[in-house]
Every structure is written in structure tokens, then in C-alpha cells.
Amino acid sequence: MRFVVNNVPVELVDVAADMTLLRYLRSQQNLMGTKEGCASGDCGACTVLVGRQGADAMVYEAVNACICPLGSLQDCHIVTVEGLTPAPGVMHPVQAAMVECHGSQCGFCTPGFVMSLAGLQLAAGNELAKADEDTQRAAVIDAISGNLCRCTGYRPIIAAGLFVLKEASLKEASLKKTTLKKPAQTARFVQNWVPNAPLAGTGGAPADTHNRNLSDGASGYWQPHTEIELQQLLVEYPHARLVAGGTDLMLEVTQQYKNLPQLIDLNRIESLSEILIGSDEIVLGAAANYSALEKTLAELAPEFVALLKRLGSRQIRNRGTLGGNICNASPIADAPPYLLVMDAELELVNSKGGSRRELLAHFYRNYKQTSLAADEYLARIRIARARLAQPLKLFKITKRYEDDISAVMGAFCWSGATTNEFKIAFGGMAAIPKRASVTEQFLTGSNWCVSGDVDEGILAQACELLRSEFSPLSDVRASAAYRMAMACNLLKKACYEFAAEAFGKVTEARLFHHA
Amino acid sequence: MRRIVVNAELSPAANTGNAPGGVGHSIAHESAHKHVRGTAEYVDDLPLLPGTLFVATGQSAKPHARIRAIDLSAVKSASGVIDVIVQSDIPGKVDVGPVYLGDPLLAGDLVEFIGQAIFAVAATSFEAAQRAAVLAKIEYEELPAQLTIEDSLTAQSFVLPQHQLLLGDPDASIETAPHQLSGEIFVRGQEHFYLEGQISEARLTEDGGIHVISSTQHPTEIQKLVAEVLAIPLHLVVAEVRRMGGGFGGKETQAAPLACIAALFAQRNRRPVRYRMPRRDDMIQTGKRHDFLNRWRVGFNREGKLLGVDLQLAGKCGYSPDLSEGIVDRAMFHADNAYFLNSARILGLRCKTHTVSNTAFRGFGGPKGMMAVETFLEDIARQLGMDPLDVRKANLYQPGADETPYGQKIEQHVLPILIERLEKSSDYRARRIAITEFNNTHRHLKKGIALTPVKFGISFTAKHLNQAGALLQIYTDGSLLINHGGTEMGQGLYTKIQQIVASAFGVSVNRVMVSSTRTDKVPNTSPTAASSGTDLNGMAAKDACDQIKADLVSFACEHFNLAPAQIIFKNDLVILGENQLDFPAFIKLAYINRVALSATGHYRTPKIHYDRATAKGQPFLYFANGAAVSEVTLDCLTGEYKVDQVDILHDVGKSLNPAIDIGQIEGGFIQGMGWLTTEELLWDEQGRVISNSPANYKIPTAFDVPEIFNIELFDEPNLENTIHLSKAVGEPPLMLAISVWAALRDACSSTTNYQFSPRLDTPATPERIYWALQDCVAFNKTAAVKPGTTEEDFNVTT
After folding, report:
1. Which tens digits make up the pLDDT trace of A245-286?
2. For B680, which of A91, A109, A399 is closest by C-beta distance?
3. What is the interface pTM, i.e. ipTM, of the complex?
4. CA torsion, points B63, B67, B69, B70, in degrees to nearest 10?
5. Pair type for strands B210-214 and B237-241
6. Are residues A343 and A488 in the same domain?
7. Least CB-CB distance to B36: which of A110, A145, A511?
8. B769 in a domain, yes or no?
9. Active-site residue B201, yes or no?
10. Which of A99, A112, A95 lies closest to A37, judged by CA?
11. 8 Å CB contact of A81 and B280
């Protein structure tokens, strides 16, 4: 396989399918700046930038090297902390700002933060440079949402991030607020850093479509470019595992030390990562990553996009996919409750090219069990535009706001006062993500809202029904009793907001802007 | 965030040698440039020597059991395995307990917690070792396990004897007091979550000795234990640490088993050995902050002043003593926090449980002791209808009310002034009114505010540890090399030492290099712990500087025929009466004239003593102080919350480096906030840690940092003769985060019109806040409810 590390082309012939990018960088490239803090994509100490050829330029995204299969990086430009600058004596603006703002203490997490902020700086346009401080702060926090620091308390790192964003429209007066240093001392940051030249030596990708990262017959990492190639591979390697982002699958390697000898990568199949906005429905490619969904659906599904920001860190969202979230069949996955109330339909394709459609509600059979056949893959997810337009409330309850797994995830969709149709689904309340059908039916037929006033008695009855429909478990995230109480209170919260909004009344402010 | 007040930032401190970067300047961390470039080396970044072996351990699956049989054949024959050892393979001492015995390096026939190492594997790769370590077949005979503090109290089973502090006659005082109350709080422990996991590398030397490179706060103990385990003298073992990727107390004793096992394999196989714990093993196999169950009975008067306190602090020590003697002692020494208790009995219990042995963690027991008094002062306030701040202020130590339960008198009364200043600068009273208004106009959102102080005693409570050494070398080009007994874990110790040495000679800091901490350079060192790193090692470094300087001055007096007062070191120059030489030229001259240019410095803390028999003494040289105001908003429907604003005023004496001190304050505060809010250590009913990864143990992220976060230094010199009159800063700020917990409790209490303070064990997760709010609902139902505070104020499902 071919890729570029810090501007140096690399060609490898024999790569283990489950070799992670982190292991490769540290053990074979001696690039020790990229650290292992957790090997599970939770701490960000291993953050690097991965560049791909976009429509007109390279597009760089921050990823967790620890759970990123090296095989997925064919033709990519990997930038590590050592590769941020052309020479060791030169500092990238993010590096300089981190020093000036006292953004490092023990230093172990620092390269990861530097890479996340460098990714933000690359992606940030002029708009963000001129935005108000609240917007900029939110952007910085989002960029480092997957980076843990145990020493600094983050304040100086946020300051460094703000500093770098402001640099594009450098006004000395505005710097005082965010740095500890006098403006005059900051002059040396004013240099326009451009990412290293893209992919020298890798132009003209080879034409072969699979067996690219060929190992011996029994093991391999395949990156088909079309669904037909994928279907052939499924026939040829019936035991191969499918990998999209790998954000969950790769934990089997890094946490359980398993071998995954055969992996089929779905990322290069355009028809699986396309997001199509039709007039009647939207069609989401199962291998589209969350960051792509965020960009494309910002207007059409703002509630869902807001939820995505809490689903995982920026690094995870740059790799993780909706298809993975669905097929992993975790009862605490965040997207399924939303997709359930959207009555999302799955398009499942088998190795012979035959396809079938199934409502997500029917897809989940039991704990971690789905209707997916051994030779099937999830190709696309379809949502009706009419449903997208309906009032929707999504709530996620966790111990920590960012990058935490839900104790309870509640999704509520209401067709409005006239038709009064309810759709309710929960994660974390049963062995599978599940609709609250009985409660839905009850509320749909009820008079719960009269001219914007909520009938507390009816809501109390609805809560009783919820209690009969669900019997959640106690675990490390929450007790069963709390989960039950949250299911009820999230339903109430949704109803208060639905009612107020439908009748133009003021809703009580939320604690957090989204989800 | 909007306003960072840094007093000393823009004006060089008065006591510097004026050269750039000396004492008092906010210079960057000495490794900052390396940190941001990724070139700062941690143990796992060292180039691998040929033949290096990697280690994993086989872990107990039972919390308490005899091992009936153990079959390691599958482990030994696994791919890549070179060597497997059990306890009987240890040539020297088996027990690596730091103070008391009780920590076998590898379990023998008895296991006492799930995860305890039973055997160790050395293999040709990290993965091979991990894969092999799970292949053993072990037969257990299960024994009854104590898993909780309650289990231990019922069984009266302790790892060490109890200890008690007594001041006056608390029973009589409580009985005759106008008001009494009693209560308890469960304060959960904390996982260190240093970003760099535990790691050691051992290399055999030609004399059969060992060079250990470890991520440890206590290299001398590593040296001692490796020597004992291998049965070789200490002079054959060198322990070295350049830096740690975070320590927080977790690498004071917990680094040693890795070093010892790596050394054992190195000796047996004559190969280099690297033992790195992956995150999951680290979270299962190494000790954490203790859980504490605190129970009290207190008497107080109508003004809210404490008259008597009877307090029991029970710490969950795990299966062995480790450092629990000192930790529970420190909890007891801080059970008063900043308050005069009048009369008190403070009983400390060291509970034995069949769980991992708990260990040092920033604050070392202090935070857990403080939680009791901060809880019942609030309860007193609610009972008397007072603002908790007024009750706190009424009970502060002050002249005449200055005796601690352990007999030490408080001499420097910083807190009354400091709190007054913070109360004003944070606008506490006006915000209190605004919050009441907010709460009256919001149905589900409620705000809370609290100001809490910290008084933290500085010195090791084990007297002999209060010493340090340093080795200063000046080379003929005028460059200086300083080595000292302290370790760098991110706290900026090396930077401050560099500044201290630079200031001593009036040279710029870049003339001074601080080299990695090695037991063959400075011997018999104390752990870098108890916030003492700079206090002890800074003084030792200064002592070394003073010795060389004295020799240089007497040389110059003789050589240039000058009086000592005419010789001044400043601005990278040496002023010699009317003349001057630049520093390198002067040093070269001194060398030519055969002046010794190296010296060892030593320091021992004066004044301190403590008598365990009478439970009286002066365990601390001085106290570091601070206070914080936190404001929070919570959602009564879910228990979710956010911290809106934090204002901190903290006493670091004369700051050696304001930027680093502020970094310690911010970082300590957020770490403390994590301990009290989102970080929940959990075990299942079998005694297995279920919070065993960052996926289920949540330390704060950048989002959790309050948007308004104001930090100011209380810029007054230490009255004690510490290094440049500074004060220790490592641990004290962690406890400022108690204000967040208190503000959350205040917000809960608002739903009862401040008549009732619900029990709020820590961490105060959204779930725990939710249940505390349910207790408020129950209170409102039973109490005579004042108008405007009915159950309807926040709608709750019961």
C-alpha cells in the first residue's frame, strides 16, 4: 500500500490487516510524538491529521491513530506532530501559542492537543476568525472534545486555540483578553502556515480495486471501490469483518488483543458514503462519517446534528459512521432512537446483489442481535422528508456532557396539535433501542395539550405506561430507577417544549443549547 | 475565562537577580518547547534496545481466595513467551510494601483483590505478553470477601490501628450546646488517570546491577525495592526519571512493582525489559484515592459557632496498608479545614477491604477530611436560616481561637482577609440575591452559589521525609547543571529549580540545565509528594548555590583584593568593585585558580514534630490557603448541571512563577471538580472494578471548564523562611473544588427555600443530584412549606 507520512512517501507490501496507525508510527516510523494514553479512542493523546484529496485541495481531519487501521489510509497524507513544520527550529502557530499560554504541564497529552488545534486551524475559514468569542470558543472546545488533559484544567489550552483562531484577523487589542502575554511578544506568531505539499509521488492511484494491501491468502485488508466488488469479496471471504470507521471494531485489537486477519473496508465505495437529499426522502450512505452528516444535514436535521456533537469527539466523528452505529446494535447507541422515531428504513444488500428494505424498528431482534444475514451489509438509510420536518426533541443523559455513553437517550417526534401523532424511542432502557409503542398510542389518542397547556394528569398516566413498557438495568452508567425516572421526565420535557412551541409560548431555557 | 488576573505577570518580582527568567517571572515550563513538538521523551519513547522483553501479569479473578492449583503450561508455551515467574522465583524480598509489609510483588497462595498479580510473563512483544497472561488455569478456594467500608466496620477489620485526636471535652460540649446535629457523608475515591500509564524499563549493568528508568515520583524507593527484591546492594541499582506524563500521587508507591518485575526479568534473562501497563490494567491493578465514610455529631450555638465535634473518618484502604497511615492521618489533620472546632474528637479508621490497595492522590486524605466539616457547617446554616458563608466565616481560625485538634497553633491568619477580599471581588452577596430572583422565576432550572476555603498543612507527616539534596555543577563555559531529588511530573518543579539557581547567580535561566533525577547523583531522596517538591529541593538547590557562591566570593575577594560586598552577581555579569566580568569569564578564572565548582546542598525542614502517643505536635511548617466561589445551574427534571462561574483567590506566598502557580491552581481545581462531579469509581458485587476505562470513568473535558474562570494570587510572603518566601501549591487548589459541590447542594436546597440541605454524597453525578432533589420533594411534603416553594416548583416523578 502507499501513503505519505509527514511529506515522505511510503510504500509497504506486507501489512497486517489489524495494524493500527499508532503502532505503525511508533514502532516502524519511530515517530514517538504520537502517544498512547488509552488505546481506545477516548483520550486523544494519539491524535494525528489524515489528509485526503478533496474536490480541489487536500482535506485534513483529526483522527485517533490508536484505533485507525493503517490499511484504511491508502493514498492518504498522515501528519504527525513531528510533521507540522518544515524544520525542527520552526514552530507551528498552534505550538507557539501553546507555549505562550502555558498550555502544557506534564506534556504527554500535548501533541494530541496540538494536532487537534492544528486541524481546527486548517478547517477554520475567515468566518470563524471574525466570529464572536462565544462562537470561537465553541469551535475550540469542539475541536479538542476528544482530548483529555489531567494537568492544566484546559483553560490555557482553550486560550491557545482562541489565539490561533484570532490570528487570521490579528488585532493586538483583542489579544489581551486571551493570552497571558503582552501583545508585543506575540508578533512571531504571525506567519501563515500552510500544510505540507500534498502527496508528492502518489499521483495516479493504481487501478486495482481490491487486494491492495495484500498479505498471505488467509489475511488481508481490502478496500473495494464499488458495491459489486464488495459483494464479490463477501463471497470470497465469508469470515472477513466489515470495517467502516473502526471506532468500535478496533477495540477488539487494542483492548482484547485479538487478531482480525481479514478486514473489508467500506470507506472507498462512493455509493455507500453518499448523502443524497431527494425531494421526498434523504438517503444516507451507511459508511458516511458523522462529520460528513453534520455538514450536510445542518439545515435539514438540526436536532440530529446537535446530537452528533455529543455522540463522540471530533476525532471519533471524523471516522465513525451511522451504519456502524446501527449494525453494532448496542442498546445504548445514540443514533438509533432518533432513527426509530424517524421511521428510518434500512436498505440491506446481500453478496448476490439482492437488496431488501426493512424498518429499523424491525431490524433489532434482541440484545446485540439484528436481522442482518451473514452475507448482508447495510447500504443506505432512508428517512422521509415529511418526517424530518416535524417537531423533534432529542435528549441525552450522561455523567459527562462530552463524549460519554448515554445512560438514557430519548427521542420524541410529534406531528403537531392537529394530527397529534407521537413517536417515542429510547436508548439505554432495554436490550435494544426501542420504541415506546404503548405510550405513543396513548398520547396520540389523548388530549394532553390544550391550547399550549399541558395536562399533567395525562402526562402522569403516560409515565405509568412507560414504566410498564420498559424495565431498564442498573450498571456503571446509571441505576435502573434513575433511567426510569429520566425516561418519564424527558417525555415531560419534550411535551412542555412541544406544547409551548406549538402555541407560540415561551419555553423555559435549556441548561445546554443542544440535546 | 473572560478575565484572567495575574498579579505578578507583568512586573518582575522584587527579589530576582534581574536576569531574564529568574525567580518571580512567568517563564514557560522548561520542557514546553519539547512538549508541543512531541520531542519530550517518556519511558515508552526510548529507543528499544535489541532483545527487549515485554511484560504482562496474570491477574486474580477472585477478591479473596486461596490458590489451590496453578497451571502455567499454556502460558509458557504461548507464542513469544520467554519467561514466566511466580512468587517463589523472587530471589530476595517478596514484599514491596512502602512503609508496612503487606504488598507481595506476586501473590503467593493467597489473593486479596481482583486483578492482583499472581504471575508475570516476559515475551518478545507487548501483545504476546498480554495474550499469554490470560492462558493460566488457576483453581481458587474462595474465602469470604469484605468489599465495602461497612463490611470492614462490621467485621472491625483494619489494615492498621486506629488513631485519635482530642481537643477539650467534645462529649460535654455537644451535650450542653444549644443545638446538636448528626450526619454522615460518603466521599468516593478517584482514579488518577495520569495520561501516561505506569511504566518501567530495566537494563542490566555489567556488575549485575540494574539501571531502572521509571515513571515514578519516588526513585529512591524504586532503587531500594529493586535491590531488596533482587537481593543486591543499593549501590548496584540506579533509578532514573526524567519526567512523568502525570503523577498526582499515583506514581509514589504504585510504580515500584513494575520496576521490580522488570528488574527481575532483566536479571533472569540478561535482557532489557520494558513493563508498560495498558490503561485497563492500570485502572484495575493500581491503587486510587480512598473512599471515605465520615460520620459526625456536632454541637453549636445560635450564631452557628461550633462548640464540639465528634467525628469518625473511615477510609477504604484496600487489602494492604500502603500509605494509608499517613493518608488517614492527613484526613484527620484536615477534618477542621479552616475552622476552630472548640472541642473535638477525631477518630481515624483504616478499613481493610478485598480491593486494590488505595494510595496517595493529590491531597493525600486532606480532601476527604474536609468534606465532613464543609457538610455539617452547611447543615448548621440551613437549620439556623443563615447563609452558609456566614457560618463558615464565624468559625474561621482567628487569634484566640487558633488551636487545632492536634495542638498546633495557627499563626498566620490569612483566610479572614482572603475570604473578605474574594467575597467582594466575586460580588458574592449581589449574586446571591440575583440567584434567588432567578430561582423564583424558573420552574426547572435552579442556581446555587458557594464560597469555600482551604487551609492545607505543608510538610510530610512522616518527619524523616522532610529533607532533600541537590548537586550543582558549574562548567568552565559558565553553564550550570543542577540535579536534585525531586521529580518532574508536569508541576513545573524543574522550571522553578532552574529559576532558583539562575537567580542565585544572577544569570539567565538558559544557562541552567536541570538534569534527570537519578539516585546515583543525589541519594536517599524523598518522594516528590505532599506539595513539598519546591520547598525541599528548592532549598537544597539554593544551599548548593550558596556554597559555591561563598567560595567564588572569597576567591574574588582575594584575587581582586575586594570586600565581599563589592562582589555582585547580576545580569549575567559578576560585578567586581569598579570592574566586571561576564559570568563565563569569571567562572573560567575561578577554575584556573582551582576553586571547586561543584557542591551538594541539603535541607531539612525546621520546627516540625508530632508525637503519636499524645496526638499533639506541630506536623506542619505552615499552611497554604485559598478560597473559591462557584456558581452552578441545575435542571431539576434530570439532575444535569453546569458550572457557570468560578472565582478563586489563592495564597502561594511570594510566587516563584505565577504562570506555573496559576496552572497548578486551575489544574488542581478542575481535577478536584472531576472528583466531586463526574468521576465515579464503581465496583460490582464481586469486587471487580467496573469503572475500568475512560469509556466508563469520565474525567472533565474542556467543555466542563467554567466559561468565567477568574484566578488571582494572594500576593503575601510566607511568614516562614521558605524558598524565596513562596508557598507550596501542588495539592491545596484541588480542594477549592469543594465550592462546586457546595454550590450544587445550595441549588438543591433552594427548592426547599433553603430550609433543608439534602445529603449529597460524592461524586455529585446528575443521578445523585436528581435523588437529592427527590429528598427535597419529600422534605417539602412533610415540612411546613413556605409559600412559593411547593412541589410544583419543580416537577418531579416520584
Report:
1. 999 999 999 999 999 999 999 999 999 999 999 999 999 999
2. A399
3. 0.96
4. 60
5. parallel
6. no
7. A110
8. yes
9. no
10. A112
11. no
